[in-house]
Design a protein that fits this description.
Layout: E1 5-10, H1 21-29, E2 32-36, H2 44-50, E3 59-63, H3 71-90, E4 95-99, H4 108-118, E5 122-126, H5 131-137, E6 162-165, E7 168-171
Parallel strand pairs: 1-4, 1-5, 2-3, 2-4
Antiparallel strand pairs: 6-7
Length: about 170
C-alpha cells in the first residue's frame, strides 16, 4: 500500500496571488490541509490559500500550538500533531501543512518533518515568498543605486531601519 506525503507549504506573506504555481497545484491535490489556528480561532494561512484554491471536500485540521516557553508542553503538542498527520499519511492521504511565508523560516514544518520522516513517511518543503522579500520588493529603498543594506523590522520594534549609502547612514521610515 502506498503512503501519503507531508508537504510543508509556504503560503507567502498574505496575498493569495503570491502563492507559487507549485503550491497551488499541490494544495489542490492534497485531500487533507493542516492549518495553524490562533488562540482566537483565526486561520490566517488558510484564509490566504482560500483566495486561490477551492478547498471544497477537503479535510481541514486546525493546528493549535500555544506560544509557551514550556518545552514539555510544546513537545506534547508537536507529538499530538505528528500522530494526527501520520494517521492520514498511513491511509495514503497527502497532507499540506500550511505555513505563513516560507516553511524553512521559523516554521512548524521544520519541527514536525523530522518526526514524520522518522516514522517512515516522506516530508517535502514547498517554498513560499517570505514577508521580508515582499516588503523589500515593494520598497523604493532597494532600487537606489548606492543602497547597500536594507533592514526590515517589526513596526513595534525599537530599532530604526537604516541603509548605508555613500558611507553615510540614511534613515528610512
Amino acid at each position: 500500500m502506498s503512503k501519503g506525503v507531508l508537504y510543508g507549504m509556504g503560503t507567502g506573506p498574505g496575498d493569495p496571488e503570491l502563492l507559487t504555481i507549485k503550491a497551488v497545484r499541490i494544495i489542490e491535490s492534497c485531500p487533507v490541509i493542516a492549518a495553524p489556528q490562533t488562540a482566537d480561532g483565526a486561520m490566517v494561512a488558510l484564509d490566504i490559500v482560500c483566495g486561490a484554491v477551492d478547498l471544497t471536500g477537503k479535510t481541514v485540521i486546525p493546528v493549535r500550538f500555544s506560544m509557551t516557553r514550556d518545552a514539555e508542553r510544546r513537545a506534547a503538542e508537536h507529538a499530538s500533531l505528528v500522530r494526527e498527520l501520520v494517521a492520514h499519511l498511513d491511509a495514503a492521504r497527502d497532507v499540506a501543512l500550511l505555513n505563513l511565508g516560507d516553511p524553512s523560516i521559523y516554521a512548524t514544518f521544520q519541527r514536525i518533518a523530522p518526526d514524520v520522516r522518522a516514522r517512515g513517511f516522506e516530508a517535502r518543503a514547498i517554498p513560499g515568498v517570505p514577508s521580508f522579500c515582499a516588503v523589500a520588493a515593494g520598497s523604493s529603498a532597494t532600487s537606489r543605486p548606492r543602497c547597500r543594506r536594507l533592514c526590515i523590522s517589526c513596526p513595534a520594534a525599537t530599532t530604526t531601519c537604516a541603509a548605508q549609502s555613500a558611507g553615510r547612514g540614511r534613515r528610512w521610515s
